[in-house]
Amino acid sequence: MLDDLDLTEYEPVYTRPESFTDTIMRYCPGCTHGLAHRLVAEVLDELGVRERTVCIASVGCSVYTYEYFNCDCVQAAHGRAPAVATGVKRVRPDSVVFTYQGDGDLASIGLAEVVHAAARAENITVIFVNNAVFGMTQGQMAPTTLPGQVTTTTPRGRSREEGGYTLRVCELLSQVEGVAYLARRVLTSPGRVRAAKNALRLAFEAQLEGAGFSLVELLSACPTWWHMTWREAFDWIDQTMTRYFPPGEFVNWRGCGQAKE
Amino acid sequence: MEDRSGATRKLMSGNEACAEGAIAGGCRFFFGYPITPQNAIPEYMAEHLPEVGGVYVQAESEVAATYMMLGAAAAGTIPMTSSSSPGISLMQEGLSYMLGCELPCVVVNMVRGGPGLGNIAPSQSDYWLATRGAGHGDGRCLTFAPYSVQELHDWSAEAFQVAARYRLPVMILGDAVLAQMMEPVRLRPRGEAMSLDREWAVGGGLKGRERRIVNSLWVVPEVMEQVNLRMKARFDQAEAEMVRFEEVGDEEPEMLVVAYGSMARVAETAIGWAADEGIRARLLRPISLVPFPYAAIRVWAERVRLVLVLELSLGQMVEDVRLAVEGRCPVEFYGRAGGPLITPEDTLSVILSMAGVRRML
């Protein structure tokens, strides 16, 4: 039926961003990685920086990021994306360099790299997707797993004795001089998606102005390893996850930080 | 000061000569992390790289330093780092990723006593790490072992061209003695920065070219095999072109002594003394450890009664020498591990006893 449609009669109002390739994504149904990718791609398009952008892919569900973003890409080892980004940016200061990392990659094995990239005020942007589990390896506990949350490696629920406490990355980084922009956003409603995109734009603008390190944390749904429907997963983000990870703007180099959503 | 040929000569430590050699060779991006006995290298780079528009970054760990190199190499430059044994252990992961991504770099290892935290004394116990290492997977670094402060300077400069030519990590293998001793160095003039214009380089804009991906993830085994075969082809080319060694001593030797780096420096003295005792010995000093001078050693193995391998370890390079000799003659070994140096006197005793001569005391 679609084949019979004469598209010339229509004006496209929603198209694939130029910063996206036409590769089909490998993400599970209900996962919000695809949405996060799209927002980044739209921002790159709107800022007109695609041709000078270098994306640093990480390890985890988003390991194939380099197949999705239509720009130069480097694949980093697990947790090391901010160090790789540092190397690229120092050699090519005119490039726009961003990493795309999950919470296992950034908050566990890669915590040192992201904290020190922030402390050095590297002019890079980090997209931090937090879904409170190791997704690609099938649902183990991450540093961001909530107290009481059941995962394959916290089968009795995360506790002080089994797995310890939850790490809050934005709260940690908010203490680090060198951070120009820092925000946590959610993707569970159109309004919140718009707020997330606005934060992403600000993060890249911080880099373009040479203001320093920028990071946007996006709370993301993992229906597969949370063993939920997408609706249940979105509700869990809104009702449970955001209580532990409150959305908000932690640092804004333009001087309006600390404003909560 | 200037010598008769007009070249600048300066009294420098091995660390300083190595760092200045790198700048002369075109190094402009250095990622460092402190560890004794190589601290003068990052310190020298921090002070002097800005003079030539270069960048020194102090990484938060040796791990991060290696990945900063990966990013810098992906962006087109030939980056450098330096460390000592425990730090080089940490760099193995990143070197494997650089091999997988087909990226060149230069790494200096000023070896210290180990294993573990060990000490800060000179050792050659990282031979296996330097020649078989570079982490997991099928890759290896090209490895060169200077034996003087001048050679450290020269190889540090040459390493950048070698790394670029073969698109492989290059390791300069020194030790705590070479790093810290001072000798006069004929300085190379500071050359132009390494070009960023490379076929794989990201950044610099997409105008007139397709987007580029620097990656070591190849899920299809046959594709991953092709990456390995490309790397092997470049390695084979290096093996054909980059074997370097030096020989001194008797022209018709009964004994071939094989030693590299600091130990070769000691052995050179000892075989001179051995000649006074009537022992006809010749020193073959591998400078390239990867590629190793198998053929040159094999030729001598046909002609001598004995090959003696001397190392500041419990016997690592000796395995390569045995591979070269292939049973043509006996291969004997003497070494000490954990940091003690072997003196020329000790070395002479070993040579004399191996030659079957009992010294009359």
Any overview of this molecule?
- The complex is a heterodimer of chains A (261) and B (361).
- Chain A is of the alpha/beta class.
- Chain A has helices spanning 33-47, 65-68, 81-91, 103-109, 111-119, 169-173, 190-208, 223-226, 230-244; strands spanning 53-57, 72-75, 96-102, 125-130, 133-134, 140-141, 179-186, 213-219, 248-252.
- Chain A has one domain: Thiamin diphosphate (ThDP)-binding fold, Pyr/PP domains (Rossmann fold, 3-Layer(aba) Sandwich).
- Chain A is built from nine helices and nine strands.
- Chain B is an alpha/beta fold and 361 residues long.
- Chain B has two domains: 9-241, Rossmann fold; 245-354, Rossmann fold (3-Layer(aba) Sandwich), CATH 3.40.50.
- Chain B is built from twelve helices and 15 strands.
- The radius of gyration of chain B is 21 Å and the shape is globular.
- Classes of the chains: A alpha/beta (261), B alpha/beta (361).
- The interface between A and B is large, with 35 and 41 residues.
- β2 of chain A pairs parallel with β9 of chain B, so a sheet runs across the interface.
Order of helices and strands of chain A: HEHEHEHHEEEHEHEHHE
* Superfamily (CATH H level) name of chain A: Thiamin diphosphate (ThDP)-binding fold, Pyr/PP domains
The profile of the biggest β sheet of chain B is: 5 strands, mixed
What oligomeric assembly is this protein in?
heterodimer
Greatest contact pair?
A: A-B, 35 and 41 residues
Element order of chain B: H for helix, E for strand: EHEHEHEHEHEHEHEEHEEHEEHEHEH
Indicate the CATH class of chain A.
Answer: Alpha Beta
Terminal residue distance of chain A: 44 Å
Overall helicity of chain A? 25-40%
Provide the low-confidence segments of chain A as ranges: none
Distance between the termini of chain B: 47 Å
Low-confidence spans of chain B: pLDDT under 50, at least 5 residues?
none
Number of domains of chain A: 1
